[in-house]
Write a structure and sequence with these properties.
The strands form eight sheets. Strands 1-2-3-4 form a four-stranded antiparallel β-sheet. It has a single domain (7-341), classed as Methylamine Dehydrogenase, Chain H (7 Propeller). The protein has one helix and 29 strands. The two termini are 24 Å apart. The radius of gyration is 18 Å and the shape is globular. It has 353 residues and is mainly beta. The longest helix is centred in the first third of the chain and has 6 residues, at 56-61. The chain has one helix spanning 56-61; strands at residues 7-9, 26-31, 41-46, 51-53, 69-75, 78-83, 88-93, 99-103, 109-114, 119-124, 132-137, 142-148, 153-159, 162-167, 176-181, 186-192, 198-203, 209-213, 217-219, 225-228, 231-237, 242-250, 257-260, 266-270, 278-282, 300-303, 310-314, 321-327, 333-341.
Length: 353
């Protein structure tokens, strides 16, 4: 399934203690697999040796991961692997990838975040027009509440004490951000954007929240495009939750992934079928660049917050193993590696705070 988070840099984040183990120093890659085939997988890129190990969940636990490995988040030394088609989250211990438990009772889950060691949230698409985010007790791995948000909730981010939900519209349309108060598990505000299908978030050096809006595409019965709206970058001041800037990316091209540089002064966007390149712009720019830093099409990508290096995924046609590319921040290629079928989008650490 499109629009996903795929890479996790296994160096510890602020919530984690330093650990050692076979999967403690490198990058996790989620490979969706073929939809309906139940062959989703996770690969691991190790800095030591500059090598990739494939199908690590299957190798360690001697069973399949499930149908469509959508995304992966690491928190408190556990990895939460969202399995979209199978309607579950597989939980493993991070350093050895051994099974720890399963979060079930989910309907087409998309993305997971943890806000502390006791609570997390997962977005759901349901039948493609779903409107649910579920609160998760991380001690019992059970759903504690279903929260109604906009249509097609996609990426979530925990920022300034609140959970922001990008309501992508799923198979229809939406142009809103839902703001959840985690102390009550209630939506306290809905932010309406002048941009369709918000998908991804990034927080900049000024503590502002940026939203990537994919734009809406309507198709004719022969799958030709009947109409479409522009893709946009929108800045939100989270002290007031007011929109302060809107930048149009393209009237006809539609990226799916948004990342931020190490210092928070630059944004990167790209990813998604049909979108060519990864672009970089300063948070002080008022228009988008005309030339990409990497002129290649990727399903998704991420920026390593420690080094600034870029990890990008080429999913091909989901009929064979895909390719992971590694670049310097200036776009110079450092290496490429065979991974699983359908490597997808990217995120760093826990929920892109």
């Amino acid at each position: 399934m499109f629009l996903s988070i795929a890479l996790f840099f296994a160096a510890c984040d602020d919530d984690d203690v330093t650990i050692s183990g076979i999967y403690s120093d490198g990058v996790f890659i989620t490979n969706e697999g073929n939809f309906g085939a139940g062959n989703g997988s996770v690969s691991f890129y190790a800095y030591a040796g500059d090598t990739v190990s494939n199908e690590i969940f299957q190798t360690v636990n001697m069973r399949s991961l499930g149908d469509v490995a959508q995304s992966l988040t690491v928190h408190n030394n556990k990895a939460y692997i969202v399995i979209n088609g199978s309607g579950k989250i597989e939980v493993v211990t991070r350093n050895d990838f051994k099974e720890y438990g399963v979060i079930s009772d989910l309907s087409s889950p998309r993305h997971f975040i943890a806000i502390n060691n006791n609570k997390g949230y997962v977005s759901e698409w349901g039948d493609g027009m779903g409107t649910s985010v579920k609160a998760i007790d991380l001690n019992t791995l059970t759903v504690t509440k279903t929260i109604t948000v906009g249509t097609g909730p996609e990426h979530l981010i925990y920022h300034n004490g609140y959970v922001y939900v990008a309501n992508s519209g799923g198979y229809i349309s939406d142009n809103t951000i839902s703001v959840i108060d985690p102390s009550t598990d209630e939506v306290i505000q809905t932010i309406t954007l002048e941009g369709d299908s918000p998908r991804d978030f990034a927080v900049d050096a000024n503590n502002d929240l940026w939203v990537l809006c994919y734009g809406q595409i309507l198709y004719n019965t022969d799958y030709s495009i009947a109409s479409q709206t522009a893709s946009k970058l929108i800045r939100i001041n989270t002290s007031t939750n007011e929109v302060t800037q809107t930048i149009t990316i393209s009237e006809t091209d539609h990226p799916t992934e948004l990342e931020v540089s190490r210092n928070g002064n630059n944004l990167f966007y790209g990813g998604g079928y049909g979108f060519q390149g990864i672009y970089k712009l300063s948070i002080t720019d008022t228009s988008v660049p005309t030339t990409p830093i990497i002129d290649k099409s990727f399903y998704g990508f991420t920026v390593n917050p420690e080094t600034g290096n870029i990890f990008a995924c080429d999913a091909g046609y989901f009929t064979a193993n895909g390719t992971l590319y590694r670049y310097k921040a200036d776009g110079t290629e450092l290496g490429n590696y065979e991974v699983g079928i359908g490597p997808n989008g990217a995120h760093t650490k826990n929920a892109k705070r």
